[in-house]
Amino acid sequence: MPNRPILLGIVGDSAAGKTTLSRGIAQILGEDNVTIICTDDYHRYDRTQRAELGISALHPDCNYLDIIQQHLNLLRTGQPILKPIYNHSTGKFDPPEYIKPRQFVIIEGLLGYSTRGARDTYDIKVYLAPPETLRAQWKIKRDTRKRGYTEEQVIKQLQGREPDSEQFIRPQRQWSDIVVSFYPPQDHPEQSDLLLNVSLVLRPTIPHPDFTRIINSENTHLSSAIRLELDRDMGKPVDVLEVDGHATKEQVRELERLLCNEVPYLGQFCSLEAEHDVIGKVVGTTGETLQSYPLAMTQLLITYHMLKEARIQQ
Ligand SMILES: Nc1ncnc2c1ncn2[C@@H]1O[C@H](COP(=O)(O)OP(=O)(O)OP(=O)(O)O)[C@@H](O)[C@H]1O
Ligand SMILES: O=C(CO)[C@H](O)[C@H](O)COP(=O)(O)O
């Protein structure tokens, strides 16, 4: 057991896929081992007040960033918090809840990296950056089916929030250790969620697995679907792991073996070999379950980092 909980941050704009990724990782690590906190709960104003004030939920002034920071510090040292609850159905606040952190804590939300104090508390920082067209499709589907909005209302909200997205949300990408971007293949711009590629920007802010052994070898089998490239992100040199939407189970398994060489106990949590594996499964907007190997690879990499950190803390 680690001495203190391991904190994973997942930040990105609305409907960028934060909840989907958080739940997937929690299923892999075992839901009893994971506490998920959504920072929407720290909105300063309810929906009516925001409309009256003309402020969006994306604006730092619309959120209790100081309380987020304080709660992150408490969670990191294993202490409980009394957390507010924002109710997306009513647009109001429910009574707060008492939360004791489990072994792994995932904090997902809009503004998680916007203060230095908050940034310093995470063990691993992920930023989700799907192309804006894909995010808009996901948001329209999710908000019309699950949050009671009309398509016109969602489009209007996306347009109205764009200045805040640009000023406050997207700059947080620079603070992340891993930038995850699912994107549709060029030949299928009308994407199917099943075929999405993923680009994983790996900043040298945390030690990543050594992918070169399998990517640089004469392993043409793997390189047809998985490539490691040198690039720049926000002006800084990074490695980028590109996983093709057509990647096969066998190809992802090879990467899984590589990660398990470095962190053997990874296999106890996530394995494509497992009979009832949950890895790479995503519940679509209409409730159907999709299997995505690029998502499986993303979950494997993040879980690898969390388990490695947990081991370091022992
Ligand atoms: N990797 C993915 N593959 C396919 N579909 C996805 C993926 N991630 C998210 N989606 C779709 O996008 C929708 C929005 O995702 P999600 O609810 O996870 O976003 P979010 O960032 O948590 O949003 P918010 O901050 O507004 O609560 C989901 O309902 C799902 O259908
Ligand atoms: O960007 C969002 C993150 O989920 C929500 O729109 C934000 O939390 C405000 O909620 P609501 O749409 O219920 O007013």
UniProtKB/TrEMBL annotation:
<keyword id="KW-0113">Calvin cycle</keyword>
<keyword id="KW-0808">Transferase</keyword>
<comment type="pathway">
    <text>Carbohydrate biosynthesis; Calvin cycle.</text>
</comment>
<feature type="domain" description="Phosphoribulokinase/uridine kinase">
    <location>
        <begin position="8"/>
        <end position="186"/>
    </location>
</feature>
<keyword id="KW-0418">Kinase</keyword>
<comment type="similarity">
    <text>Belongs to the phosphoribulokinase family.</text>
</comment>
<keyword id="KW-0547">Nucleotide-binding</keyword>
<dbReference type="Pfam" id="PF00485">
    <property type="entry name" value="PRK"/>
</dbReference>
<dbReference type="InterPro" id="IPR006083">
    <property type="entry name" value="PRK/URK"/>
</dbReference>
<dbReference type="InterPro" id="IPR006082">
    <property type="entry name" value="PRK"/>
</dbReference>
<keyword id="KW-0602">Photosynthesis</keyword>
<keyword id="KW-0067">ATP-binding</keyword>
<dbReference type="InterPro" id="IPR027417">
    <property type="entry name" value="P-loop_NTPase"/>
</dbReference>
<protein>
    <recommendedName>
        <fullName>Phosphoribulokinase</fullName>
        <ecNumber>2.7.1.19</ecNumber>
    </recommendedName>
</protein>
